[in-house]
Amino acid sequence: MRFGPVPVAAAAGALLVHSVRQGGLVLKKGTVIGAAEMAALAAAGIAEVVVARLDPDDVTEDTAAAAVATAVAGPLVRVDAAFTGRANLFAEAAGLLVVDRAGIDSVNAVDPDITVATLPAFAPVVEGTMVATAKIIPFAVPGRACAAAVAAAEAAAPLVRVAPYRVRKVAVVSTLLPGLADKVIDKTLRVTAARLAPAGAAVVAERRVPHETAAVTRAVEDVLREGAELAIVFGASAIADRRDVIPAAVEAAGGRIERFGMPVDPGNLLMIAEVDGRPVLGAPGCARSPKENGFDWVLARLMCGLPVTDGDVAGMGVGGLLMEIVTRPQPREMPPAVPAETNAMTPPARRLAAVVLAAGRSTRMGGPNKLLAEIGGRPLVRIAVEAALASRARPVVVVTGHQHEAVAAALAGLPVRLVHNPDHAEGLSTSVRTGIAAVPDDAEGAVVCLGDMPQVGSGLIDRLIAAFDPEKGALIVIPTIAGQRGNPVVWSRRFFPELGRLTGDVGARNLIAAYQEAVAEVAADPAAATDVDTPEALAAVKATLEGG
């Protein structure tokens, strides 16, 4: 192809390289210059234009783009008509995009003027998703280059194809240990159902069994016998070794472990296995969360009937760090200096603030502000705040809102920091945001207490603080009573940005559910589950504390 400026009088039959806009004249790039165009250019006072002329062996950009795109496209991929040197490829079904990287590289190595770009390999797609594009850079390329690119694509065909979702019936087996609440398993099922929905699949069988090899073996055999095409096992305790309960159960069922452990974080503790020719996944703890993790990568491939081998998983490390792992300190964080007089074997004391929420309107009390109700001669809110002050937490921040002046008066003389929440009527989340924002920068976290729980004492608060251990992954600490979670809750500073984005009147329950792997539980007495919301509850607590 010849390229360069020529007088308008010598431009007949050439392609216009740059669009021309002058006066009322508009000629688009790529226009074939004929007699009419030459006359219009001359009338506009343009004496010279940049043009391209094809050599006899040249292939035009649209023809070349269409040829390359057609050679690249595999099953369930369609090619649109080429335009301005580009031919786009689209998915014809929902599934995963399968790309032969080496093949695409070989096409792109033929000539810099011939290019093919795709979505990442194994990207989820739906019908109509653009999955690739073939673009010819100049107006034409030599025929030999076009032929070489097509040959390279055909030699490795198919280079780009869609693997449609095939698995429709999925079973979930959950193992049980003391302290694992039913609501955790219920949420796991909801999250799993949402993961399966784009593939048109559903949970068709579910089992909840003891965390024992024999029980898991029977459950896996049962759900496969009932027709499940894939089984997922959620352990009450994470798989720690190929000889642990869940892998042992798979082998006892006559199955084979393909891989345990993957270089994707979160998702390290994933097990891939098969029983009777059907895949069985031992889910890592992060799979209980809807956030993307290594489990998603493997599950999606298996849902499309694609094999996931030991080598496939070993190759997932580059790009496998999906997010900051909340249960592990960031590399840039340095441990606090230990004073010389401190025994090196003694863990450093944690500095945690207390945030007492005392802004509510007491709507369920039918009128009076429950926080001002007296028990044993002290306002309920003062009892809660004095318990925080008697604990190791420092400083103590109290969030006020409804009748804030009266609440402040009830706390007169106490060494606390009062912060007012003018948006308290919009829900509990606004008070959490206000309190967290007031925690000093040097605090490692905060224990969030409710002002209407007078039976929570300093002892419980201190036990929660003692259980807070970032180095061991205990970043959220929650009291439990017979498997039910209560209050107060200790939060690592790492979660402060997300606490600051809470909305509505549900507090931080959803955030806790999203970070199950960071939760530590502390057994507590029923006081940790008792808040004063109604006149009846107030009377019961008052009778207990006053001995009436």
Q: Provide the low-confidence segments as ranges.
A: 330-347
Helices and strands: which structural class?
A: alpha+beta
Average pLDDT, rounded to a whole number, is 89
* Basic shape: flat
CATH level-1 class of the largest domain: Alpha Beta
CATH topology of the largest domain: Spore Coat Polysaccharide Biosynthesis Protein SpsA, Chain A
In the residues, how many domains can be counted? 4
Radius of gyration using CA atoms only? 33 Å
Largest sheet: 8 strands, mixed
CATH superfamily of the largest domain: Spore Coat Polysaccharide Biosynthesis Protein SpsA, Chain A
Strand content: 25-35%
Helix segment tally? 16
Q: Give the name of the CATH architecture of the largest domain.
A: Alpha-Beta Complex
What's the count of strands? 30
- The rounded distance between the terminal residues' Cα atoms is 101 Å
Considering DSSP H and I runs of 4 or more, what fraction of the residues is helical?
A: 25-40%
Domain MoaB/Mog: 171-304
Protein name: Purine catabolism protein PucB
Organism: Rhodoplanes serenus
Keywords: Magnesium
Structural commentary:
The longest helix is centred in the middle third of the chain and has 15 residues, at 182-196. With 548 residues, the protein is α+β, with helices and mostly antiparallel strands. Strands 21, 24, 25, 26, 27, 28, 29 and 30 form an 8-stranded mixed sheet that branches. Strands 16-15-17-20-19-18 form a 6-stranded mixed sheet, with helices on both faces. A 4-stranded antiparallel sheet has the order 7-8-12-10. It folds into 4 domains: 2-53, Molybdopterin biosynthesis moea protein, domain 2 (Alpha-Beta Complex); 58-164, Aldehyde Oxidoreductase, domain 3 (Alpha-Beta Complex), CATH 3.90.1170; 169-314, MoaB/Mog-like domain (Molybdenum Cofactor Biosythetic Enzyme, Chain A), CATH 3.40.980.10; 352-536, Spore Coat Polysaccharide Biosynthesis Protein SpsA, Chain A (Alpha-Beta Complex), CATH 3.90.550. The model is unreliable at 330-347 (pLDDT under 50). Helix 2 (61-72) runs parallel beside helix 4 (143-155). The termini are far apart. It is built from 16 helices and 30 strands.
